TrEMBL record:
The lineage of its organism: Bacteria, Pseudomonadati, Pseudomonadota, Alphaproteobacteria, Rhodobacterales. It is found in: Cell inner membrane; Cell membrane. The keyword Transmembrane helix applies. The keyword Cell membrane applies. It comes from Paralimibaculum aggregatum. InterPro entries: DctQ (IPR055348). It is a multi-pass membrane protein. Keywords: Cell inner membrane, Cell membrane, Membrane, Transmembrane, Transmembrane helix, Transport. The chain crosses the membrane at residues 17-38, 58-80, 101-123, 171-192, 204-220, 240-261, 290-312. This is TRAP transporter small permease protein. Part of the tripartite ATP-independent periplasmic (TRAP) transport system. Residues 183-314 form the Tripartite ATP-independent periplasmic transporters DctQ component domain. Pfam families: DctQ.
């Protein structure tokens, strides 16, 4: 945790509650989305809009779902009231830690699933799969209703465990993997005259993950491209004020639009492929297209949380609290680099 000057203003409770409530509401939205569209619960809005159509069980389930959003507001209020002097930068670091875990788990997921699925796809194309897993399993893995739960989901569970116990690998290795996968296509095509659909699928699988998973890290490192005319000439405090406004009216709102449009209904662009375990139509390709739709959800969630962290960091910059990442060194407004 960075040191905070004793003269720094006390962290504003409403801002901290707002930031943590957005984070909590994001997870409440994801849980409710799963309960509504995968488990056929009525939805929290059903308690408000069509309570008369629900039986006792339906009312109870709808109340639980609506209560998740209430908890998303209550828990941040309790947390902030119990830690009134918690620096904004400390809250931001906790949020960034959550994002780092999500991205780390996502990296392991695409690595393990990608390698396993391309091996299965190769053996299936060449007719070797039945020799290793048996004819029944080989036949079943020709359909994603079997391959996804039997092969992909256990690997996703392993990815979550690896993300908890290791800090060594991360999404930046995906850039190397993409290059190696593309190099393998070039070598197999021009030297061995061999190319299959699953080879291109792996490149797209890993490249999509690299593009979407790296966005939150790039945000915290201030590495996104800026069309900058005035910003660079501003003091650090002025830059903080600009970033606060940007996080509120563009960043957080943009992420909510992604999640809502992608997951509002069963036929939305994220929910539909995930529920149908969608695959490509390229013959014997990889069976991971449905996971690529999930990449959009990971992007929206990770960016949402990171924008909340960036909001707190930017507010601290605006208030002149030392200890932040200096976007601009400007006389007396300089902030210590960490």
């Amino acid at each position: 945790m960075t040191d905070v000057s004793t003269t720094a203003p006390r962290p504003p409770k409403p801002l901290r509650i707002f930031a943590w409530a957005v984070v909590a509401a994001t997870f409440a939205f994801l849980i409710n989305n799963y309960l509504t569209f995968w488990q056929d619960w009525p939805g929290g809005d059903a308690l408000l809009l069509r309570a008369g159509e629900l039986d006792g069980t339906g009312l109870a389930l709808a109340a639980v779902q609506l209560g998740l959003y209430g908890a998303a507001l209550l828990l941040p209020m309790l947390y902030v009231s119990r830690s009134p002097d918690q620096p904004l930068r400390a809250d931001a670091e906790i949020m960034s830690g959550i994002v780092r875990f999500i991205i780390r788990a996502s990296f392991w997921m695409v690595l393990l699933v990608g390698l396993a699925d391309i091996v299965v796809s190769f053996m299936r194309v060449e007719g070797y799969l039945a020799e290793f897993v048996g004819a029944d399993v080989a036949s079943a893995w020709g359909y994603n209703e079997s391959r996804a739960p039997q092969l992909h989901m256990p690997l996703v569970g392993i990815a979550l465990v690896l993300a908890l116990v290791t800090r060594t690998l991360g999404f930046h290795w995906l850039a190397v993997l993409v290059v190696l996968a593309e190099l393998a296509i070039v070598i197999s095509r021009f030297i061995f005259s061999y190319e299959q659909a699953f080879q291109g699928d792996l490149v797209r699988f890993w490249y999509g993950a690299l593009f979407l998973f790296a966005s939150a890290y790039t945000l915290v490192e201030d590495g996104h491209v800026r069309v900058d005319v005035v910003y660079a000439s501003l003091s650090t405090r002025a830059q903080g004020a600009v970033n606060v406004i940007g996080c509120l009216i563009m960043g957080i709102l943009f992420c909510w639009v992604i999640l809502y449009l992608g997951m509002a209904t069963k036929s939305s662009i994220i929910n539909a492929p995930l529920q149908s375990l969608e695959i490509t139509q390229s013959g014997f390709g990889m069976y991971v297209k449905y996971l690529m739709a999930g990449f959009l959800a990971i992007f929206g969630v990770s960016m949402m949380i990171q924008f909340c962290a960036y909001l707190l960091e930017s507010w601290a910059d605006w208030q002149g609290v030392p200890g932040g990442h200096a976007h601009h060194v400007h006389g007396e407004d300089q902030i210590t680099e960490v």
